[in-house]
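Supplementary Note 3. Input sequence used for the single-chain structure prediction.
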Amino acid sequence: MKNLALHWKIIIGMTLGILWAIFPDIIIEIKAYLNNVETKEILKGSLGDFKNQYIHFTSNWISPFGKIFVNLLKLIALPLVLFSVIGGIAGIGNPEEIGKMGFKTLGMYLATTIFAVSLGLGLVNLLQPGKALSDASRLENRINYELWAKTENIALKDNICYSCKVENIDLVKQVQEEMKLSEIENEVSTRLNTANKTLKSGPLQALVDMVPKNVFAALSSGAMLPVIFFAIFFGISLLYIPKKQSELVVNFTNAVNEVFLKMIDFIMKVSPFFVFALLAGMKLNKGMFLGLVSYSLVVILGLATMIFVIYPVLLKLISKKYAYFEFFKKIAPAQLMAFSTSSSAATLPITIECVEENLKINPKISGFVLPIGATVNMDGTSLYQAVAAIFLAQMFMVDLSLGQQITIMLTAVLASIGSAAVPSAGLVMLMIVLTSVGLNPAWIAIILPVDRILDMMRTTVNVTGDATICAVIDKLEEE
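The predicted structure, written as discrete structure tokens, is reproduced below.
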């Protein structure tokens, strides 16, 4: 074990963590199968008590270490971004070069995000996972949608009214009763409120939020974009003062960066145990009916295409420095950390270390490109939003036009840029995407059961995209 590579240790930690999380459910399912009874009957006996004690022990004695791990990474992430961006800009030395690099970086990030959304739309329209449900279930869903649209004064997008047909009168009454009895889950309503606040803000609110009133308040709240704005502003200003004065600040910044990288080294040495603790406390849901399975497979297919086809092709066409498997081997710790934490921001310190130490990319490039990528580059998130929106429309028998799907694409791109680099932030942005084409944002409750595992995967795509673009920009800057 001592000579085992770090990424293998992390994989072992992840595997043991997942096995720990599902162990009680496996025992209960086996017992139910052998006794030929329902799972809920088994839970009434001693195995139910065992499961409760098992979960209680995990929550009290194992899960806290996973939270400590994420906190440690977040503790380092923001100050590391601050000093990395300042150091990277100051190290470039020429303000004109910063403008060129910034234009290339944002251009590449935007291009891959648009491609990811287009890929997601293409796959979901081709494979149509929302039609995996029975026609009766989809008709019931459709009437639910029509009744909701009526209460919200929203015009039906395809101008078809199933609830108006005589043969559906009994079904309409049934759905109306169910709607009266049902309540939106707390988790959904919380995200709905957040989405509504975002929608009510003006078109330039994102620009206003980017400029902090107080950089220390931004650091305290964990707001990445205002910190990056301050760092860029500070770094550019350094270039316009005499070198005698700026040199002291630059040397201090570089020294602080070295300290943070050493802190990352210390954390990574014990990361396999922390990853185990993080996944051991993960709550797994059973909401995997046929439609969700189909939806999940389409999302996974799209994410896998981005990681294993699109990014390597981009590297091959532009960078040409790394062999196919060599690139993945060198960024594996960052990918595994992204999968474990579901947070691009928390993974950022590891991404910087992998890119600088393993890919040998100039710290001036990585210090500028990666922090911006952790904030604005959400390829996996945007692809998932496109697939989820069309999947839900298909489930509710809503036939969206080409124009409406283009609206989804544009909204998903803009929403992914504004999406926070934290777990499940894409769900809030998905509500905005659904609202943009008149669909019910509360429908995210349907995909919540499988969102956690898909969130882990799409974060891995986001981080891989950051590393890929960083390598591409490094090559372009060399030329």
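Confidence is low (pLDDT under 50) at residues 181-188. The chain is about 80% helix and 0% strand.
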